[in-house]
Write a structure and sequence with these properties.
By secondary structure, the chain is α/β, with parallel strands linked by helices. It is built from 14 helices and 16 strands. Helix 4 packs across helix 5 and helix 9 packs across helix 11.
């Protein structure tokens, strides 16, 4: 009889002792064949647990394509590699490539790479994408590249350490005693240094998450990129907003069939677990490893800068029924994701002061 993922985690705890919440979350999401992202469960779209921007409308892929095309111009219209980190079903890749295909000179020399760790997602991508795409297991395989590395809703699914401030910073551990329970142990120096480096001082009783995997990830991107840009799209905030008093319980959430819950120890492997991204941390550690800040915006202003209004006007020339359907999809994208989702752009070895996606600035600032 096949063991459930819950039983596998329980056995690990009983064999080796309590584990960090980070290790629990990693197993829940990525355990081979049984984790949320490694199982064959449908995750994205109407029959899944959540929507992404590319599920709502192909316009998002076109706007991304426009930003990438502009970056190609900035890089002197020479070699250009686009790397998508974690491409889901491949719908965004398809829409981006459809746009870039219109620029024959760019498309001819374009290398489009996907770094994908999920065997199930990889299989879906191979069905949806049949030209121009190469797949890799790790970003480090593309060392020395020139172009752009981008991700959409990736970093929020990295496993995170959970901490709570008592007399000193404590890390949340997971144990099992007739059910999963939380215990605390003094936080490591690495976790404490994360907060110190960002200038964050937590009041007593404050609980939050620390994403050390994101630091390693941004370091890997920087070491891989010889010249070009990094675009990170996700939901989250800069430190000044993320650690507000009203977030004293943290930002961890579970998603199942388009509803959210905070039952982290239920339906293990059957629901998504996410936490908000700290964009200040990505900017800070990116800068330490050679990635220079290039802009920070919310989704709505990013799309405006890339010409979403002109795109909507062009839709009017088509079939009226089709036109209104597409308009409603784009309206949903802007209204439901426009403020929540943020875009951080970093650069390396590039003299570039202005990008179209940063033309119209929101009130959000990296601090």
């Amino acid at each position: 009889m096949t063991m459930s993922l819950s039983d596998i985690i329980i056995e690990k705890i009983q064999r080796s002792g309590q584990i960090s919440f980070r290790d629990f979350m990693e197993m829940a999401l990525y355990y081979p064949a049984s984790g949320y992202y490694t199982s064959d469960k449908e995750k994205i779209g109407r029959n899944g647990d959540y929507y992404t921007a590319s599920n709502l409308t192909a316009a998002f892929g076109e706007m991304m394509g426009r930003q990438l095309e502009e970056m190609w111009h900035v890089l002197d219209e020479k070699e250009f590699t686009v790397v998508e980190m974690g491409a889901g079903t491949g719908m965004l890749s398809r829409d981006v490539l459809e746009y870039l295909k219109r620029n024959h000179e760019l498309y001819q020399d374009l290398e489009y790479c996907i770094v994908e760790k999920s065997p199930v997602m990889l299989e879906n991508q191979r069905k949806n994408l049949n030209e121009k795409v190469r797949w890799y297991n790790s970003i480090t395989e593309l060392s020395g590249m020139t172009g752009c590395i981008f991700s959409n809703e990736l970093v929020d699914a990295f496993p995170v350490h959970q901490v709570i401030m008592e007399k000193e910073l404590m890390e949340v551990m997971v144990d099992y005693k007739d059910g999963f329970i939380e215990t605390l142990k003094p936080a490591s120096k690495q976790l404490k240094n994360y907060l110190i480096e960002l200038g964050i001082f937590l009041p007593e009783g404050y609980r939050t998450e620390i994403n050390l995997d994101a630091i390693k990830w941004i370091e890997d991107l920087s070491s891989t990129l010889k010249k070009g840009f990094v675009i990170t799209i996700d939901y989250g905030y800069p430190s000044s907003e993320l650690y507000q008093e009203y977030r004293s319980s943290g930002t961890l959430m579970c998603y199942h069939r388009h509803t959210s819950n905070s039952s982290l120890f239920e339906n293990i492997g059957g629901q998504d677990i996410t936490s908000h991204v700290n964009f200040s941390a990505l900017e800070h550690w990116g800068n330490k490893h050679g990635l220079v800040y290039c802009g920070f915006n919310d989704m709505a202003h990013f799309l405006l800068g890339l010409g979403i209004e002109e795109y909507l006007k062009d839709l009017q020339k088509g079939n009226p029924v089709d036109h209104w359907k597409k308009v409603l999809q784009i309206k949903t994208l802007i209204m439901e994701m426009g403020e929540t989702f943020k875009i951080l752009i970093q650069k390396k070895g590039v003299e570039c002061e202005h990008l179209s996606g940063m033309k119209f600035q929101s009130h959000w600032k990296i601090n």
